[in-house]
């Protein structure tokens, strides 16, 4: 009985522990194994070696996908943070109708790209959307044709992704701004420090953990970005907007090249690992010291 | 204050509002296109501009999308699939939130050796791309005998939701002073007593965050829905995809758009109604590192 | 007519022993668009009329990608659907991975061997046993033209790629978009394979895109093919990226473009819009002729239970039945896989297609379409498409394309 009492916390965690062990780490191990086989349509378990990785790194399409991940991920994270922070600071100025604006900024997070994909495709299509509309207003030379230009199409993905996530980042930052100690701010105001200085020197530095949280949420969205690409460009023109997740999906499910898909998944996982582990370290470390 | 300062201040505020409204328009654009298109007749969609308001309102596309749009050989609209999604999302959200709350409670207040490592392991699980788990998961569901059923889908969503809900609750509960637990223990209260008497009553903001997040994720999911459902258990996103990809001669864009809005309505509603609490919940500590 | 239920019963008895259960079928397919859905509905009605119970499992999107994802998950979870829309070498690939049900008794009883072209029958067999049933034959290498525009500019349907280029230049000079095209990789691949066939001839096509002969892939002919693709790139409008094929067809219909290169499913769009062949639009084989086929079929996985096995037998028989073959193909724009179905109710384009198929079966120009998954397995076909679409959508030179093609194919083998 006493043993039970002492071990209740562990018993509560046990089901989750087993579930995560099997359904996350077990599956990663499974994928790692498959990446070393010649699995095609369905999994096969005979060991083959690292041939799939050699193929992967030799494939021009994979290079494009990885380049795109860094272009897309970098821009998406930076722009979302900048816009999110800006909107949060602006909304924090005792704005009328703040509730309405907040909801408007936040709602894209509620929608899946399966739902908004068609609308976005129309808006970005030069013959139907913004370009056509602005031209019909009389600006004949207005051009907005990123969607159909291979070297620019990836930026339309960034645009739609920022649309979806920046409101959420705004919410995170707004929450952060609201939890800053108002005493300090009032003291600063009394001292006659201008508002922009108060933000840049006092408030924003205290929000470091929120930057980290936002970064992690965004990085997670960037790496998992899949629906977005499928809905907007389906990887095109050509494969100019391919991302690792779409590459992997294409290999696994439309090409019957499961081994190759598993290899690409493992590389993706390593990228994730490289990003997440430092975060986890910094997140969990200070608490030890407390 | 000098009058000059007042003018520049007014200017600044106007500028502020201008920027905020401009962004609001940007965020609203896709919804605007969807909404207006769903209310236009096909004829008007063909001839008119994409961004114009409908000349004549018609609600026929909405009725069709709900109850008679065709996907494959069935013409039942979204209705039956909508209920599948409800039956899937509600238990999945509830279970993953409860599990997350208990886990978070342990991680925040009942530390033991290795707890941090385990927490890190759970967090890392949040980042696993879902495409990776499709095939082994299918095998597991088959072994467990719940493949192609709604309980199967609930199971999958709970498993991959635990990471986030645990994170939310742990970060929230960690701000509650440990002295509270210690005092309660001295009074002889046990693990669950303390949870129900002290922690749960304080948890409303973070429960809101967890429910909103999980509901959005689960309701909007397509990949698990299409892979792990059988006939009769397909969620609304799969049906939406089928309807949008079905054409009968001419593509009924208005019906597609109406269907898309219907499929998105529950999550939209949750954000509109509970959005305020969402921010409040985040403020209450869930994002403090 | 009275023979058929009798045959069904006897088949069922053969397959399932003395117990007669209600035939069950759960059918996984991605036929969700207009004519297709109507045709599946016909099959469903026939199935029900013979006492069967049909469960529909449509998974649309991505040209069957989503359906194939669902199929893998279903098979891995040990819960394979009764019948699945599958085609080309994928049938044999699945047979090797998991085995497929033997529908030989149905095929023999109904004399499939005698009524199917040999090349098409081969696709339905796995190691000599029947494992799939064909529903139609699409011809991929069609070029569609807007009659009015062509007449206006005095242009005849081109029979060589040079003629096509000349016609396109005339149209371009007159301000008409010569070719309606959608920039999706499978559409790029569709145009590519017709150019390979047109410039290289049937033998070259067979070597390059069926046998994957490195010499053919790395030949001057292949270089010329990519040159021609670059020329064609100049004939499409600016907004072609990501456009669906049926929207491209609509451009030809509405006079916004003169030609489209697309399989005969495009005809269904013309017909659905009440356009008449020979009056509003013209169909012709793509320059160089030959016959690239795309055959839709249903494969039958191994399932347990008499009711489901009987469902498979019944479904196989109905699919190959003359009635269904006719109705389905009238709806879909293709021609029956059976060569003995009367074509009276079909239009001129379909009859032309049937003639070309029979002629092609004789002279060896009846060839599987690589772009539509009939010639190659997924990995090499996808590798080729990657190169084709990358070349078409960038300024890659033909030399680079040929080099990449050879590498990509070699690594996908």
TrEMBL record, chain A:
GO CC term (a single one): plasma membrane
Domain ABC transmembrane type-1 positions: 66-281
Signal peptide: none
Subcellular location: Cell membrane
Keywords, comma-separated and alphabetical: Cell membrane, Membrane, Transmembrane, Transmembrane helix, Transport
Domain of life: Bacteria
Xref: Pfam families: BPD_transp_1
One record GO biological process: transmembrane transport
InterPro entries: ABC_transporter_permease, MetI-like, MetI-like_sf
CDD domains on file: TM_PBP2
Gene3D superfamilies: MetI-like
Transmembrane segments: 12-36, 69-91, 103-123, 152-177, 198-223, 261-281
Membrane topology: Multi-pass membrane protein
Protein family per UniProt: Belongs to the binding-protein-dependent transport system permease family.
Name of the featured protein: Carbohydrate ABC transporter membrane protein 1, CUT1 family
Naturally occurring in which organism (per UniProt): Paracoccus denitrificans (strain Pd 1222)
UniProtKB/TrEMBL annotation, chain B:
Species: Paracoccus denitrificans (strain Pd 1222)
Membrane topology: Multi-pass membrane protein
Compartments (UniProt record): Cell membrane
PANTHER family: ABC TRANSPORTER PERMEASE PROTEIN, GLUCOSE IMPORT SYSTEM PERMEASE PROTEIN GLCU
GO cellular component: plasma membrane
GO biological process, one term: transmembrane transport
Residue ranges annotated for the ABC transmembrane type-1 domain, each copy included: 82-274
Transmembrane portions of the chain: 12-33, 86-108, 115-135, 141-169, 190-213, 257-279
Record family assignment: Belongs to the binding-protein-dependent transport system permease family.
Keywords, ordered alphabetically: Membrane, Transmembrane, Transmembrane helix, Transport
Protein name in the entry: Carbohydrate ABC transporter membrane protein 2, CUT1 family
UniProtKB/TrEMBL annotation, chain C:
Keyword Signal: yes
Pfam families in UniProt: SBP_bac_1 (PF01547)
SUPFAM superfamilies: Periplasmic binding protein-like II
Functional description taken from the UniProt entry: Part of a binding-protein-dependent transport system for a sugar.
Keywords, sorted A to Z: Signal, Transport
Primary localization: periplasm
Top-level division of the source organism's lineage: Bacteria
Protein family according to the UniProt entry: Belongs to the bacterial solute-binding protein 1 family.
Localisation: Periplasm
GO cellular component: periplasmic space
Residue ranges the record marks as coiled coil: none
Protein name per its UniProtKB record: Probable sugar-binding periplasmic protein
Signal sequence region: 1-21
């Amino acid at each position: 009985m006493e043993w039970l009492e002492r071990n209740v916390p562990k018993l509560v965690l046990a089901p989750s522990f087993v579930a995560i062990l099997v359904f996350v780490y077990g599956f990663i191990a499974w994928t790692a194994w498959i990446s070393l086989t010649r699995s095609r349509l369905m999994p096969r378990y005979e060991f083959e070696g690292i041939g799939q990785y050699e193929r992967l790194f030799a494939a021009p399409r994979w290079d494009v996908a990885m380049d795109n991940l860094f272009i897309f991920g970098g821009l998406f994270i930076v722009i979302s943070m900048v816009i999110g922070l800006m909107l949060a600071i602006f909304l924090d100025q005792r704005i009328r109708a703040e509730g309405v604006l907040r909801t408007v900024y936040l709602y894209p997070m509620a929608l899946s790209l399966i739902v908004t994909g068609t609308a976005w495709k129309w808006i970005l299509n030069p013959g139907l959307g913004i370009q056509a509309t602005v031209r019909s207003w009389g600006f004949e030379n207005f051009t907005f044709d990123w969607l159909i230009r291979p070297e620019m199409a990836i930026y339309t993905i960034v645009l739609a992704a920022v649309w979806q996530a920046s409101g959420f980042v705004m919410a995170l930052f707004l929450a952060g701004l609201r939890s800053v100690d108002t005493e300090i701010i009032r003291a600063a105001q009394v001292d006659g420090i201008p508002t922009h200085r108060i933000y840049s020197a006092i408030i924003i530095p205290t929000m470091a953990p929120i930057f980290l949280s936002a970064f992690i949420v965004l990085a997670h969205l960037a790496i998992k970005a899949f629906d977005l690409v499928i809905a907007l460009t389906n990887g095109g023109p050509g494969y100019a907007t391919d991302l690792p997740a779409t590459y992997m999906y294409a290999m696994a499910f439309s090409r019957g090249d499961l081994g190759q898909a598993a290899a690409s998944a493992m590389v993706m996982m390593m990228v994730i690992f490289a990003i997440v582990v430092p975060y986890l370290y910094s997140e969990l470390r200070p608490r030890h010291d407390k | 204050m000098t009058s000059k300062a007042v003018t520049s201040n007014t200017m600044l505020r106007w500028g502020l509002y201008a920027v905020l409204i401009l962004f609001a328009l940007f965020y609203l654009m896709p919804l605007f296109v969807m909404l207006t298109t769903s209310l236009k007749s096909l004829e008007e969609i063909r001839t008119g501009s994409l961004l114009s308001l409908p000349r004549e309102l018609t609600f026929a596309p909405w009725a069709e999308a709900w109850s008679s749009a065709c996907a494959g050989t069935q013409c039942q609209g979204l209705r039956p699939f909508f209920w599948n999604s409800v039956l899937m999302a509600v238990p999945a959200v509830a279970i993953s939130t409860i599990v997350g709350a208990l886990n978070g409670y342990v991680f925040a207040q009942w530390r033991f050796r290795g707890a941090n490592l385990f927490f890190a392991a759970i967090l890392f699980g949040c980042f696993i791309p879902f495409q990776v788990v499709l095939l082994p998961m299918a095998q597991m569901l088959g072994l467990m005998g719940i493949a192609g059923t709604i309980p199967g889908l609930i199971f999958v969503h709970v498993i991959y939701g635990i990471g986030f809900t645990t994170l939310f609750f742990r970060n929230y509960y960690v701000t509650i002073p440990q002295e509270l637990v210690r005092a309660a223990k001295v009074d002889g209260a046990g693990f669950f007593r303390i949870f129900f008497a002290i922690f749960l009553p304080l948890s409303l903001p973070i429960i809101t965050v967890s429910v909103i997040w999980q509901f959005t994720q689960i309701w909007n999911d397509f990949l698990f829905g299409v892979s792990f459902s059988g006939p009769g258990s397909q969620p609304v996103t799969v049906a939406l995809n089928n309807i949008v990809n079905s054409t009968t001669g001419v593509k009924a864009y208005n019906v597609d758009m109406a269907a898309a809005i219907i499929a998105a309505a529950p999550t939209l509603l949750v954000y509109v109604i509970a959005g305020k609490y969402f921010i409040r919940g985040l403020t209450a500590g869930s994002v403090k590192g | 007519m009275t023979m058929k239920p009798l045959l069904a019963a006897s088949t069922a008895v053969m397959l399932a022993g003395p117990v007669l259960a209600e035939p069950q079928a759960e059918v996984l397919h991605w036929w969700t668009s207009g004519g297709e859905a109507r045709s599946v509905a016909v099959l469903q009605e026939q199935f029900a009329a013979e006492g069967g119970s049909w469960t529909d499992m449509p998974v649309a999107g991505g040209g069957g990608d989503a359906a194939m994802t669902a199929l893998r998950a279903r098979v891995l979870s040990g819960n394979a659907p009764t019948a699945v829309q599958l085609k080309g070498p994928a049938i044999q690939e699945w047979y090797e991975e998991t085995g497929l049900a033997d529908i030989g008794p149905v095929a023999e009883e109904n004399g499939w061997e005698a009524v199917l072209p040999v090349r098409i029958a081969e696709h339905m067999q796995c190691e000599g046993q029947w494992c799939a049933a064909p529903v139609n034959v699409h011809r991929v290498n069609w070029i569609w033209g807007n009659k009015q525009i062509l007449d206006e500019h005095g242009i005849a349907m081109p029979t060589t790629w040079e003629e096509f280029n000349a016609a396109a230049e005339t149209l371009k000079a007159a301000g008409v978009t010569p070719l309606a095209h959608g920039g999706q990789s499978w559409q790029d691949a569709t145009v590519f394979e017709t150019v390979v066939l047109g410039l290289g001839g049937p033998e070259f096509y067979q070597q390059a895109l069926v046998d994957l002969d490195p010499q053919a892939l790395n030949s001057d002919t292949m270089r010329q093919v990519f040159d021609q693709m670059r020329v064609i790139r100049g004939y499409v409008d600016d907004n072609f990226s990501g456009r669906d094929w049926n929207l491209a067809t609509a451009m030809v219909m509405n006079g916004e473009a003169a030609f489209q290169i697309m399989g005969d499913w495009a005809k269904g769009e013309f017909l659905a819009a009440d356009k008449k062949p020979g009056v509003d639009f013209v169909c012709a084989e793509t320059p160089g002729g030959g016959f690239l086929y795309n055959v839709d079929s249903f494969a039958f996985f191994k399932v347990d239970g008499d009711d489901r096995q009987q469902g498979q037998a019944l479904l196989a028989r109905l699919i190959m039945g003359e009635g269904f073959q006719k109705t389905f193909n009238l709806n879909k724009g293709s021609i029956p896989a059976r060569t003995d179905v009367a074509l009276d109710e079909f239009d001129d384009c379909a009859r032309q297609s049937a003639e070309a198929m029979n002629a092609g079966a004789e002279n060896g120009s009846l060839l599987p379409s690589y772009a539509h998954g009939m010639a190659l397995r997924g990995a090499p076909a996808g590798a080729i498409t990657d190169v084709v679409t990358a070349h078409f959508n960038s300024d890659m030179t033909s030399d680079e394309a040929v080099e990449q093609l050879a590498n990509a194919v070699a690594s996908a083998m």
